[in-house]
Amino acid sequence: MEFEAKLPLSFQKEIFEEVRNEDGLCVVAPGLSSLRIVANILAYYSVPGSLLILLNANDTDIEILEKYLDELKKPLVSVNTDSMSVDGREKAYKGGGIFAVTSRILVLDMLTHLIPVEFITGLVVLHADRITATGSEAFVLRLFRQGNRDGFIKAFTDEPERLTMGINALSGCLRCLFLKHVSIFPRFHVHVAEALENSPAAVVEFNVEATESQKSMQTCIITCIESTIKELRRINSAHLDMEQWTVDSLLHRSFDIIIRRQLDPLWHRLSSKTKTLVSDLTTLRSLLTSLISYDCISFLKLLDTVILSAGGRNPMQNQSPWLLLEPANTLINLARQRVYSVSPTSPNVQVPVLEALPKWDILKTILDEIKQDASKTDVTPSTLIMCADDRTCFQIKDYLLSSSFDEDASLKLMQRKLRDYLDWLQRYKKIKNELQIKGIPKQRLESSNTFRKAVPPNKRRRVRGGSNATTRSTTPVEANDNIEPLFSLINSHVTTPETESSESSYFNDFSLNIKSYDGDYDDILLEELSPNYIIMYDADPAFIRRVEVYRATHPERQLKVYFTYYGGTVEEQRYLFAVRREKDSFSRLIRERANMTVLLTTAEESLTDPEHKFLQSVNTRIAGGGRVSSMSTEQPRVIVDLREFRSTLPSMLHGHGFSVVPCQLTVGDYILSPKLCVERKSVPDLIQSLNSGRLYSQCESMQDHYEIPILLIEFDQNKSFQLEPFAELSAEIGKNDLQSKLVLLTLCFPKLKIIWSSSAYATVLIFSDLKALHEEPDPETAVSYGLEPGQDATSTLNRAPVDLLLGLPYVSQKNYRNIVYSNVKNVTELCDTERRNLTELIGPECGNGLYNFMRKELKDV
Fold it and tell me: What share of the chain is helix, strand, coil (3-state, %, to 5)?
């Protein structure tokens, strides 16, 4: 097959050749243009008559691959329920091509034989590190390998850290992918380093020194975090291992999420103080990040919001312990001193301080240097400023547009922000006074608005050493009781953006673009803009690789990179931690690949082995009078509703040896036998169904058509197996409580059986026991239950408009089918339907009510 890969760098061609020659998992360092390699792999196998499936690709991946494949003159078809119908998908599959299909649609198409599995040329899997044994993607791969032993599977990932989490994560990922080979290409790979270091770009590094107040505030926040972690260890040391919970772990971007996941199984056993401490960790991490990126006024407003929200908690709940610490008091005082201070001449008058971010001066210096270089040439240079998030982009843009680039470059912007902040305080104070006038008790307002009022001097607590305890900070409202003079002073100096002169703006001097980091889309951004100067306002290791790849691809282009960071702060430590963690992850993957056990018998071979199937079907619980006919090689059958494929249970049932038959069921979610019908509910869905009354209609339908209706309540395996924490149970159970509604449900339906399942794994075992000694269900019979005479059982429903229909008043579970299976095609035709036709469909009362609702005015005249 003659195909010339459009890959400019030698290491990219090497990766392409290795992936093409052998199926396997390719682990690439982030920023090395892995999607461009994927596009060339897809184009290589895209020949007339071939059928290629792109699996586990998000919207950004599809958009980028479409651009790359357009250059290779190969179309990419994105398949979802909104863009293509069932008949359209079947016709498109038969024509061949490259298809990006969601895993849920692909599972249904494979099980219903809409897509010929044996004719699929191969699968290309993105983000392979996120493939789990119970996910829909693993379900697709299992179905593909069972029906097609010759097609290829090629997987890619650029997140090596996820493959080192847990025990044998790499082996588990390969097992789910049905692969044996692993290709690893880190940044320190010999060929990668040679290709990127041949023509390095000119880099100017700025180690920006943070202000003394920023350093002191960072120390205060870290001290509060240390105290919070120490308190968590002390309270939960009996039943929780927290040796790895250190301050260094804070540098991980998902530190608080990891802690919450670790605590989820024990969440019902934790005290309210522990839950408050976990929430405080998230708040403190947010403050630590915002201290570097926010300006002084925005940070003070964020801190005031945290204080007010902590003071507004229920008095029965625990207050945030970190706010009671001395470093927290210092943090609050320093945050206010950066914005305003007391006038030395008038103690009751506050004057603005407005401490600017140090990076702003560095940014001005860099832009002046670029402007000076541009004046020497006739070509207008292109400059790209990259930031961590959109908020920082808007901040820089406001700074560049509002300043005149003199000695007080940031004064106008800061004055405007201070005016908005003082206006926010005045509006808050006004709302508080209005609530007092309306009769809300003052004590209640103080408990909800006040955070630790200052202790009177004669009531100060004596501390060890003989000195008085430090007075705590007050609320933002109390600390700014005399803001009117400051507000008047700021209003007299602030100018609106419309009146400012923009003649000296850098946007008019040269092409200037301010963007935030956006993953793989940054590769296309660099190619489209072709910048001559790149200013990395915030550090990002992956973007540095992208700049290296861009420079190595276009060595003839002029490129100069400015790299700024706050030295000695969390920003520098987080960047170094990310680089070190990536290197350690690749080193660990290389060692694990060298010591990994070689599988001589793959999983797909055991799934198709007749002896293995027979041993799986043997029922060892057969006693006297048991039916020996259950010892057959036929797979046990489970009929599953199409909507249930959003969960992991169908995949786990198939992996356990069940034959999963997808159908559009009107009654029940899972049909285990002609007598057994199961309605599965997760805990949130159970609460919603009980409140809306939908569960009552579902149980009524099951009881009418099946001998044994079952309500299965399934819990998340990563959370506690408990319906409601003991601490949240009230002394008396009312009629609106969840327990009361379940009791009423069982009283209304005596035949209904309720089964509690701790996880999807337990549900599979429960289904195995329930199906023992029962006959297999018939799909045609199961689909016909609940349909009105003359309704078509083979037609499928689009869930989005049907859910909208069920949300309308006067439309219920009993009468919505009359509308769906009538001549009404869509919601637009339903709105235009005459009153007489609606009354014929759903009855006089409901029809008239729905007709009047559709024509009700939006505004009450």
Answer: 50, 10, 35
